Amino acid sequence: MVVKTLNEFIIERQSDFPYAKGELTRLLSHIGVAAKVVNRDVNKAGLVDIIGEAGNINIQGEDQKKLDVFADEKFILSLQASAECCGIASEENEDFIAFEDEIARNGKYVVTIDPLDGSSNIDVNVSIGTIFAIYRRLSEVGHKAEKRDFMQEGAKQVAAGYILYGSSSMMVYTTGRGVNGFTLDPSIGEFCLSHPDIKSPASGIIYSINEGNYIKFPEGVKKYLKYCQEKDEQTNRPYSSRYIGSLVADFHRNLLKGGIFIYPKTDSSPNGKLRLLYEANPMAFVIEQAGGRATDGKGTRILDVIPEKLHQRVPLYIGSRNMVEKAEEFMEKFCKN
Ligand code: P6P
């Protein structure tokens, strides 16, 4: 079988966009380059002195691991060098970054990114990931990026995806014409097309949620979990509980095998934990393009949520369409507020 690299695929698909003159192509290619650099260091994290707290506390109030900082820097440098991106909103930075240099200011796109999601898993060698979304800027080309460029609803994404640094490293993304997955071949240092046209199974037998928070869950979630655990051969229940605690890893497994991931609101986290701009929205674009569903549990599509704050959180019910709809039925029946 002839191997198709990420760059060959991106260029081949560029013809999908008559208006695009290669800008998005270059942007996606630069993301791929940064991913390879971060992958190299994630894979040897145990060997070099980049494990452990960088001594900083990030905007989320979490200990910043050195690899967090390293990944954030690598993606920012690569995106700025693409000359297609005029600004970035990152989980690791309190405010958005508007590039100052003239070339970057002429970029037509902005990027929201979680440079290294699940970083608390770095020290124990559990899969972690990068999540990104690309929007067309609203502000005038040639000027600095403005906050409104980043406060667009997810439905305005022109591309989104993730890199999974796991047993093998993969890049999965969509530009609104389906979802394709690329596996890094270390022998040639290229992401190669390995999962063309990924489709989310309409149903599955996996549910992913941190059951340690059970007592804090809304009643509808508690009832849905009991539904998952009941025996019913016709609907292949009881389902299996699978939770890695790394969104990219949990999402990717459920995307391929079928399943639902839930991070609901709780009393202590009234909007859940996951971030709208650079976690929920990119994953929602991917899952919908694969035929799945992503909502806040109360019928609002994640992609329709109008952002109000850069690091705003949102409850996330995402995965196989039938499973998300079933969970929403329980939320509708048992959670009126
Ligand atoms: P909890 C990792 O810190 C993360 O942001 C996601 O990758 C993951 O899905 C979630 O938090 C896990 O959160 O509260 O279950 O540990």
Summarize the topology.
Layout: H1 6-14, H2 23-43, E1 53-57, E2 63-65, H3 66-81, E3 85-90, E4 97-98, H4 102-105, E5 109-117, E6 128-136, E7 157-165, E8 169-174, E9 179-185, E10 190-195, E11 206-208, H5 219-229, E12 240-241, H6 247-257, E13 260-263, H7 276-289, E14 293-295, E15 316-319, H8 321-334
Parallel strand pairs: 3-5, 11-12, 11-13
Antiparallel strand pairs: 1-2, 3-4, 5-6, 6-7, 7-8, 8-9, 9-10, 13-15, 14-15
Helix pairs in contact: 1-2, 2-3, 5-8
Residues 117-118, 120, 210, 245-247, 250, 273 line the site of 6-O-phosphono-alpha-D-fructofuranose.
Total count of helical runs of at least 4 residues: 8
Compute the separation of the termini in Å. Answer: 54 Å
Assigned CATH architecture of the largest domain: 2-Layer Sandwich
CATH class of the largest domain: Alpha Beta
Order of helices and strands: HHEEHEEHEEEEEEEHEHEHEEH
What would the principal axes of the Cα set say about the shape? Answer: globular
Task: Provide the CATH topology of the largest domain.
Answer: Fructose-1,6-Bisphosphatase, Chain A, domain 1
Q: Which quaternary structure do these chains form?
A: single chain
Mean pLDDT: 92
Characterize the largest beta sheet: strand count, sense, and whether it forms a barrel.
8 strands, mixed
Supply the helix-strand structural class. alpha+beta
- CATH homologous superfamily of the largest domain - what is it? Fructose-1,6-Bisphosphatase, subunit A, domain 1
